[in-house]
Design a protein that fits this description.
heterodimer; A: 115 residues; mainly beta; 4-stranded antiparallel β-sheet; B: 116 residues; 7-stranded mixed β-sheet
Chain lengths: 115, 116
């Protein structure tokens, strides 16, 4: 069965610090997709990244970077030089069967960035 | 913004009542998925609609039902409301290709339902 674990429930950092959000997943499928979404207080889930299981290259987008390691079933998310606007709940999610099954989410990590 | 809209934004109902939530998908998207997010939890999949038919369902009872219209918008109906139905209901739209491949899901702002 597929499962996503985000062990960090809450993290607080001071502005400009780097922070890494951990995500560990379980699946028996070989063709799957991993996602990160951001949920600000307004409630809307904002899509950040989608990565397929065959692409283990790390990705960087501005201050955001993602480290995908199949050997440890992890897909970690790092924010460099955090800002107050980064404060939100971040969810990691998994979709099997080449992304054609429903998203299975972790419980989320609440990030608070303090000025 | 994603272009996915939901209405209403907030709703208060009492136990036993029925509720209808609405979702308009992003332009170019033909698939709508509904998720329930309880406080402090990740979203849980309720069901998905594609080509006006249910295309997958999560572990939710039959009193949760839905519709998809020809313009790809969708409704979620919940009958006989229970206290545990209090949650944020999220709609996500995506495009399913002619080959059956589903692209990324984009979420709306959600409807917060409180059942008293």
């Amino acid at each position: 069965a597929q499962k996503v674990t985000q062990a960090q429930t809450e993290i607080s950092v001071v502005e400009k610090e780097d922070v890494t959000l951990d995500c560990v997943y379980e699946t028996r499928d070989t063709t799957y997709y991993l996602f990160w979404y951001k949920q600000p207080p307004s409630g809307e889930l904002v899509f950040l990244i989608r990565r397929n299981s065959f692409d283990e290259q790390n990705e960087i987008s501005g201050r955001y970077s993602w480290n995908f390691q199949k050997s440890t079933s992890s897909f970690n998310f790092t924010i460099t030089a955090s800002q107050v606007v980064d404060s939100a709940v971040y969810f990691c999610a998994l979709s099997e069967n080449s992304g054609n099954t429903p998203l299975v989410f972790g419980k989320g990590t609440r990030l608070s960035v303090i000025a | 913004e994603t272009g996915v809209t939901q209405s209403p934004t907030h709703l208060i109902k009492t136990r036993g009542q029925q509720v209808t939530l609405r979702c308009s998908s992003q332009s170019g998207h033909n698939t709508v998925s509904w998720y329930q997010q309880a406080l402090g939890q990740g979203p849980q999949f309720i069901f998905q609609y594609y080509r006006e038919e249910e295309n997958g369902r999560g572990n939710f009872p039959p009193r949760f039902s839905g519709l998809q219209f020809p313009n790809y918008s969708s409704e979620l109906n919940v009958n006989a409301l229970e206290l545990d139905d209090s949650a944020l209901y999220l709609c996500a739209s995506s495009r399913t290709t002619s080959g059956g491949y589903q692209e990324t899901q984009y979420f709306g702002p959600g409807t917060r339902l409180l059942v008293l």
